[in-house]
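Need a sequence for this fold. Nothing fancy.
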């Protein structure tokens, strides 16, 4: 398998962490989707990463699709419950959707700042995205409470997704002090950061 992505993308990081946790072999191909000479369109017509290219040349797009597929490839470190428990599985995917939604809003904030000149930036738009981040983080913290992991006692895909969201916010928006505002999230993130899969995928510019 071949994973196309960047070192800064939290969505790519999610896929890289799952690949590491599942102990799956793959080739990591760096791609800058913003570069004029990017080739991402050859694998993903939407021009986004991550993109997982399989042995037969077919490709999976979107991190949520990719990681769910990867979890089926080996029983090592199961990150989603077996299909029989639909409610538990949906709950974990809901954690992932919330974490990814926070990232989506954060990415829109960043693009507004770095891709538009100051006089063209829409402050109301940025404020709206910032509110999504703020409310999303509060919801994550409230759901986590004093639990060891997002889904309770076991490490799951929910923790991977939340850890990637928190790590990216710390990387791109250090002024958002989620650690002080939500000590439970800080505790979880510190624990996740001790895992080798997280250590090996720290975001880089």
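Here you go.
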């Amino acid at each position: 398998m071949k994973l196309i992505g960047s070192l800064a993308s939290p969505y790519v990081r999610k896929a890289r962490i799952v690949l590491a946790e599942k102990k799956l072999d793959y080739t990591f191909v760096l791609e800058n989707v913003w570069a004029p000479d990017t080739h991402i369109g050859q694998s993903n017509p939407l021009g986004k990463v991550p993109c997982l290219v399989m042995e037969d040349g077919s490709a999976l797009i979107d991190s949520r699709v990719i990681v769910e597929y990867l979890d089926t490839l080996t029983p090592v470190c199961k990150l989603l419950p077996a299909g029989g428990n639909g409610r538990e599985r949906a709950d974990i995917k809901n954690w992932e959707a919330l974490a990814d939604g926070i990232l989506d809003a954060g990415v829109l904030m960043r693009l507004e700042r770095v891709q538009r000149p100051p006089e063209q930036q829409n402050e109301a738009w940025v404020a709206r995205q910032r509110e999504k981040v703020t409310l999303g983080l509060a919801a994550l913290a409230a759901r986590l409470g004093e639990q060891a992991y997002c889904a309770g006692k076991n490490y799951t895909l929910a923790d991977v997704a939340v850890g990637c969201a928190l790590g990216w916010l710390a990387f791109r928006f250090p002024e958002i002090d989620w650690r002080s505002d939500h000590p439970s999230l800080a505790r979880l993130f510190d624990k996740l950061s001790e895992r080798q899969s997280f250590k090996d995928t720290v975001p880089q510019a």
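For context: The mean pLDDT is 96.
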